[in-house]
Amino acid sequence: MIKERLKLTDSTFAVAVKMSDGNPGAIQVIMQVLSMTDIDPDSALGGMGAILHLDSMGIYGTDIYVLFNDICNRELSKFIAVLRACQLGFESDSKLADACSRQDGSGAKMIDVDGLYQKVIDRLPDFDKQGITS
Length: 134
Known about the structure:
The chain is built from seven helices and no strands. The protein is globular. It has helices spanning about 10-20, 25-35, 45-55, 60-70, 75-85, 95-100, 115-125. It has one domain (about 10-125). The N and C termini lie far apart (about 35 Å). Helix 2 (about 25-35) packs across helix 3 (about 45-55). By secondary structure, the chain is mainly α.
């Protein structure tokens, strides 16, 4: 069982520290996600919803960076879409967590990022209305 690290009362700084495990790439991704406003307008908690989902899956530090860099090709909208796809039941949390834990690049082959992105757009028509953003 995963023990979540975050509390809704955490400051942005505390969220970045707890989630990043000191990985500079993960800190950058977390800050981008927290500042995103227009990719997923249907998310009640904005970027914090995506971060809370990472926390519930036990994806931290280097694994966040692997998801962003290796699996989602540094495209923030696809990063958010993959997390949203898990929330919508298009992909399992455990499969995504497994893919993110593979630092040898093999995790990228496990996740159909483009297919999940399209499924999210089909389900949530307002998702990424501005087009792919990185």
